[in-house]
């Protein structure tokens, strides 16, 4: 018993001290882990930031990609059927929108509540068709760089239509910022080596129609019961657009289906190009909706202004179209005007 008693106490103390050491080590490890976690949260970007960066990259890629592919098909490849190409885009938008909303539940489905609302959406769809078709026609004759320079004047046409249709007046500073927007395009037109009058008129028409759609949409779908998010609006506009474009295609681009089939027999790659191009047209709208949802209005303005400049640079690198110093100076002035316009609008809305 003495041996047991003498031997018991030292063992108990040793175990107690060992437990203490283990406890202290455990706490130190916990503190280290917590400290490491805090530091890692500071040093490394959060998953949300990676997600947003991925969305913006996808938005840029799809926007610039569909623009360059349209140019390649309509100009370089020789597929001279812009109305049929637009109809392919709208068909893909109708099908993929239904899949995204009805099956994948990406956004809640909103229903058309009245015949009046349906006619309003149909009117928007007709304007939308005119904008896209005119834009695609212009790409047959104009380089992407000049196309983007003209497209940057959308704020000017939006302000004009807003005043003519709603008598809405902007602050005088807002109107002043539109001067460099228009002046820049005039300078760019004079210095554009590949200027084509018909292509220029079509591009102006596309830009004006795009602005008109924005204003009309604000007027027609202004009540709370009729407002649709952009995904649901596309779901309803796209099939209506197909109905408008089908007779126009059959009348103005006769035998386009037969010609496309004949091209596919010679080079099946045209089928993959049309399918990919059409899917990309839908992803332009999808990524635009997601970027709008996950970023601020200011971020969206900055990204939108930069997107046109990126498209210009990429198109020049790919298509090697000639550019002049005067043309680039004009486009730069237009972009500066658009940025000033955005700032003026933001201040006037405060």
UniProtKB/TrEMBL annotation:
Q: Which Pfam families match?
A: TPT
Determine if Glycoprotein is one of this entry's keywords: no
Which UniProt key words apply to this protein? Membrane, Transmembrane, Transmembrane helix
Domain Sugar phosphate transporter as annotated: residue spans: 55-342
- Location(s), subcellular: Membrane
Q: Which Gene Ontology cellular-component terms appear in the entry?
A: membrane
List residues traversing the bilayer.
50-69, 81-104, 116-139, 145-165, 172-189, 195-212, 233-250, 270-291, 298-319, 325-342
Membrane topology is: Multi-pass membrane protein
From which domain of life does this come?
Eukaryota
- Specify where it is mainly localized: membrane
Q: Does the keyword field hold Methyltransferase?
A: no
Q: List the InterPro entries hit by this protein, alphabetically.
A: EmrE-like (IPR037185), Sugar_P_trans_dom (IPR004853), TPT_transporter (IPR050186)
Xref: PANTHER family = SOLUTE CARRIER FAMILY 35
Name this protein carries in UniProt? Sugar phosphate transporter domain-containing protein
Organism per entry? Lactuca virosa
Source lineage: Eukaryota, Viridiplantae, Streptophyta, Embryophyta, Tracheophyta
């Amino acid at each position: 018993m003495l041996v047991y008693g003498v031997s018991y106490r030292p063992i108990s103390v040793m175990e107690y001290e060992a437990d203490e050491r283990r406890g202290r080590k455990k706490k130190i490890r916990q503190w280290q882990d917590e400290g490491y976690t805090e530091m890692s949260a500071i040093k490394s970007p959060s998953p949300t930031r990676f997600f947003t960066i991925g969305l913006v990259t996808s938005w840029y890629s799809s926007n610039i990609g569909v623009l360059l592919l349209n140019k390649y098909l309509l100009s370089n490849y020789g597929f001279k059927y812009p109305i049929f190409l637009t109809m392919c885009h709208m068909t893909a938008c109708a099908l993929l929108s239904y899949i995204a909303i009805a099956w994948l539940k990406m956004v809640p489905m909103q229903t058309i509540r009245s015949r009046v609302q349906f006619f309003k959406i149909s009117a928007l769809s007709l304007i939308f068709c005119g904008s896209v078709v005119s834009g695609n026609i212009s790409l047959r004759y104009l380089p992407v760089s000049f196309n983007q320079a003209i497209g940057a004047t959308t704020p000017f046409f939006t302000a004009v239509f807003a005043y003519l249709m709603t008598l809405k007046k902007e602050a005088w500073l807002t109107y002043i910022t539109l001067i460099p927007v228009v002046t820049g395009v005039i300078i760019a037109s004079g210095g554009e080596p590949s200027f084509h009058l018909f292509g220029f008129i079509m591009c102006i028409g596309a830009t004006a129609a795009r602005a008109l759609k924005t204003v009309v949409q604000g007027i027609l779908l202004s009540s709370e019961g009729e407002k649709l998010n952009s995904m649901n609006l596309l779901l309803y506009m796209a099939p209506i657009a197909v109905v408008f474009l089908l007779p126009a295609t059959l009348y103005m681009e006769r035998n386009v289906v037969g010609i496309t089939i004949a091209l596919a027999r010679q080079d099946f790659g045209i089928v993959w190009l049309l399918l990919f191009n059409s899917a990309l047209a839908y992803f332009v709208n999808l990524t635009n909706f997601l970027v709008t949802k996950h970023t601020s209005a200011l971020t969206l303005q900055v990204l939108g202004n930069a997107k046109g400049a990126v498209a210009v640079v990429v198109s020049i690198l790919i298509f090697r179209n000639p550019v002049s110093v005067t043309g680039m100076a004009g486009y730069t002035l237009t972009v500066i005007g658009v940025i000033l316009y955005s700032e003026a609008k933001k201040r006037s809305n405060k």
